[in-house]
Automatic annotation (TrEMBL):
Record's keyword terms, sorted: Aminoacyl-tRNA synthetase, ATP-binding, Cytoplasm, Ligase, Nucleotide-binding, Protein biosynthesis
Binding site residues for L-histidine: 82-84, 113, 127, 131, 258, 262-263
Places the protein is found: Cytoplasm
UniProt-listed Enzyme Commission number(s): 6.1.1.21
InterPro entries: aa-tRNA-synth_II, aa-tRNA-synth_II/BPL/LPL, Anticodon-bd, Anticodon-bd_dom_sf, His-tRNA-ligase, HisRS-like_core, HisRS/HisZ
Organism annotation: Candidatus Manganitrophus noduliformans
Subunit structure and binding partners: Homodimer.
HAMAP family tied to this protein: His_tRNA_synth
CDD domains on file: HisRS-like_core (cd00773)
Gene: hisS
This protein's name: Histidine--tRNA ligase
Length: 418
């Protein structure tokens, strides 16, 4: 054991798992591209105020989870806890609306939250997120949800439930907030300390409390669905009809809220029953007020974020395309090593995945290493072969061996292996 270990809640992604990560990422690039999204990469470190403004002061993230510090200039900076605020900041900073009025952007990268580490909950985790900025049409909500479900379908992750709700808008939120407060008022002494505070600052957050006592009380709380204004009601109806039209199954979850303040209208989560307590693999919703709150013109938008660690756990490793070693060169002795070494680069130039053994090591150990690397073929060249101008090619699964002249080695191997 080394003297150093990684920080609690920070995880190494090792080769045994990284194949799945690469597959997730390449499938994301392909799928999001097909749906017309462009890739965006924003910095991991931002001004703290960007997050306090957008996520909201009275949220778990801002109250207790952000990695915030002063840099050497005395500026308050934060490791991003989520992606949307940064994307909207970049959208405004670079006037993307002038170049692409309807901006469809996606990102992949690490996020940081100082939460209690446990299964499915890390302090550095990764999200794949998508945002559609600039259109209020409920069809955008449906398109985004169709992208989300298609992405999981491509990785054959099934048994997911799409839960949707509508959180209303600034027109209907105050009446709903008042209804919530008058409901929870009766139960104030039974609520946890956090929720008693939320009662005043942000009563919607009580619906998201993970404590059993609070969950039991919240079960009969009023739903925002029953307090929607006409516009939000119409919007929610159109989203449901669109999902029906595309045969995307969903459930209405009347108490679903989100941990960030900026959400309006449509909110959703993709959940699984295969991950225990941390059952959400993706979440998102509309945030029609955020662009304006960050200093831009009134601009509707919607997005989601997928938790990559949780998604990776749901993937069947057998489905992941792995590139196996095609050829292991086994030289026996210095002369053979010198003859085979240039061949290694020549094979790699032909995009054939190959490795070479140490010419000072015996055949048995080299074969063992080739086996451990999963090589499909091994090319053996010893002193005998060198004098006779040939090499032995062994098929590792059939054990069949054949002789190949050294003079035509590259041509024969590349024809056989590529
Ligand atoms: P939760 O209710 O699980 O705390 P959240 O509402 O905080 O989730 P979002 O901010 O909406 O989550 O992030 C979207 C997704 O990112 C989540 O559904 C989850 O899959 C993943 N995620 C969020 N926080 C973590 C974390 N600490 N560790 C690993 N994955 C996470
Ligand atoms: Mg959370």
């Amino acid at each position: 054991m080394s003297k150093f270990t990684s920080l609690r809640g920070f995880k190494d992604i090792l080769p045994e798992e990284s194949d799945r990560w690469l597959w997730v990422e390449s499938t994301a690039h392909e799928t999001f591209n097909v749906f017309g999204f462009s890739h965006i990469r924003t910095p991991i470190l931002e001004n703290t105020e960007l997050f306090t403004r957008s996520i909201g002061e009275a949220t778990d993230i801002v109250e207790k989870e952000m990695y915030t510090f002063q840099d050497w200039d005395g500026k308050k900076v934060t490791l991003r806890p989520e992606g949307t605020a940064s994307v909207v900041r970049a959208y405004l900073e670079h006037h993307l609306s002038e170049k692409i009025p309807l901006s469809k952007l996606y990102y992949i990268g690490p996020m940081f939250r100082h939460e209690r580490p446990q299964a499915g909950r890390l302090r550095q985790f990764h999200q794949i997120g998508a945002e559609i900025i600039g259109d209020l049409d409920p069809r955008q909500d449906v398109e985004l949800l169709s992208l989300l479900t298609r992405f999981f379908e491509r990785m054959q992750v099934t048994d997911l439930t799409l839960e949707i709700n509508s959180l209303g808008c600034p027109a209907c939120r105050p009446t709903y907030r008042a209804a919530l407060q008058s409901y929870f008022e009766k139960y104030l002494p039974e609520l946890c300390e956090d929720c008693r505070r939320r009662f005043k600052t942000n009563p919607l957050r009580i619906l998201d409390c993970k404590k059993e006592a609070c969950k039991a009380i919240a079960r009969n709380a009023p739903s925002p669905i029953d307090h929607l204004c006409a516009e939000c009601r119409e919007h929610f109806k159109a989203v449901r009809e669109g999902l029906y039209q595309l045969a995307i199954p969903y459930q209405i979850q009347p108490h679903l809220v989100r941990g960030l303040d900026y959400y309006t209208k449509t909110a959703f989560e993709l959940t699984t029953n295969k991950l225990g307590a941390q059952n959400a693999v993706a979440a998102g919703g509309r945030y029609d007020g955020l662009v304006e709150a960050l200093g831009g013109p009134p601009t509707p938008a919607i997005g989601f974020a997928i938790g990559v660690e949780r998604l990776v756990q749901l993937i069947d490793p057998a489905l992941v395309p792995t590139s196996r070693l095609r050829l292991f060169l086994a030289p026996l002795g210095k002369a053979a090593g010198a003859a085979l070494f240039p061949l290694l680069l020549a094979l790699r130039r032909k995009n054939i995945r190959s490795e070479m053994g140490n010419d000072a090591i015996g055949l048995k150990s080299q074969m063992k290493r080739a086996d451990r690397l999963g090589a499909a073929y091994v090319l053996i060249v010893g002193e005998n072969e060198m004098t006779q101008g040939k090499a032995i090619l062994r098929n590792m699964s059939t054990k069949a061996q054949e002789e190949i002249p050294l003079s035509t080695l590259i041509e024969t191997l590349s024809a056989k292996l590529s």
